[in-house]
Amino acid sequence: MQLVFATNNLHKIEEITAIIGKQINILSLKDIHCFEEIPETKETIIENALEKAEYVNSKYGFNCFADDTGLEIEALNNRPGVYSARYAGENRSFEDNMNKVLIEMKAIEKREACFKTAIALIINGEKHFFEGIINGTILKEKRGTNGFGYDPIFMPNGYNKSFAELSAKVKNEISHRALATNQLIDFLKKLEK
Ligand code: IMP
User: Is 2-192 assigned to CATH 3.30.950.10?
Assistant: First the structure.
């Protein structure tokens, strides 16, 4: 079976290929010669994931899945949410985005937050959805250098380290993306049987 992962992030492709094994051939956008920017215009992560998967499926004809992730902070009415990648503005750095959150949260004691990943899969004309959530808190300052994005300011519940202080191995076992991806993989493995 061939399945396109509608992402330009080769790290994500490698990660899922390593878990899924050889039964399913995961193709990147580059593999199918899709070089244009895929629209991501919706107000929720699940709709964005579906928009990306539908775009590739309808334009290129492949079975396809796409993901989208957001950090939801309770005290900020679930912002940055779907705007996580560009919270401080278009083309701003992870540092800028984290600094904006830290400033907004400066006087706030209630620091609960969660990361959510949504995956939309379109296979043989049918749509399927998967979601992974990890709860935690927003730290008052950045801690650690591993990972990316908001990792230095997010501490998952049950750990006294930020995501950026945890090893990649531990983060990849517990993260929002791992939880959503594992559901997708279970589903695909059942299809293969
Ligand atoms: P994407 O949908 O996977 O591209 O994620 C959107 C944005 O959410 C990224 O640009 C990051 O700012 C943030 N993000 C996603 N996953 C993580 C993570 O595992 N740790 C920290 N930040 C993340």
Answer: no
Write down the domain spans for the chain.
2-192
Distance (Å, whole) CA 81 – CA 99: 16
Residue 51 Cβ inside 6 Å of ligand 1? The answer reads no
CA distance 188 to 185: 5
**pTM over cut 0.70:** yes
- Whose alpha carbon is nearest atom 9 of ligand 1? 85
Residue whose structure tokens are 């589903």: 187
pLDDT in tens, the chain (193 residues): 899 999 988 878 887 887 777 778 999 999 999 999 999 999 999 999 999 999 999 999 999 999 999 999 999 999 999 999 999 999 999 999 999 999 999 999 999 999 999 999 999 999 999 999 999 999 999 999 999 999 999 999 999 999 999 998 899 899 999 999 999 989 988 886 6
Nearest CA to ligand 1 atom 16: 69
From the CA of 175, give the closest atom in ligand 1. Answer: 19
